[in-house]
Amino acid sequence: MTELCTLLCKGLRPGVYRWRSDLSTEQVRRGVTAAGWNFVLLDTTGVHDKAGFLDVCARAFDLPRWFGRNWDALADSLRDRSTGEPELVLWEGWRELLDQDHDAVAVALQIFAEDANESGQLRVFLREAKDVPDLVSEVPVV
């Protein structure tokens, strides 16, 4: 866990990253909050399509009831909730979703990257999968 705290305390730039770690979700949560960051678990395990992904996002990011469940609404809602405070999003289950709905993951990664660049808030960690599909091969590893 000290590696995670060191990574966060060194000023990790906003963005989307692949992350190799055996830490449990609860260990990650504790490490992130100990560093003074906000933590969001985005767990899409068992989700197979855009609609399911957007439902998970609504819960994970605590989006308003009126959240429109479309890509533009996700981008707008993330922008609206931005405080500029550092936030780590741990995306579990992304690989399973990618196998079922490649486009949903591609668009989600684009939205997260844009929000990270604009807000300076998000650092999205994709828990490293055993294989690296082409879509994420260019995503930097931390």
TrEMBL record:
It holds the Pfam family Barstar. InterPro entries: Barstar, Barstar-like_sf. Residues 38-119 form the Barstar (barnase inhibitor) domain. Gene3D superfamilies: Barstar-like. Belongs to the barstar family. This is Barnase inhibitor. The lineage of its organism: Bacteria, Bacillati, Actinomycetota, Actinomycetes, Propionibacteriales.
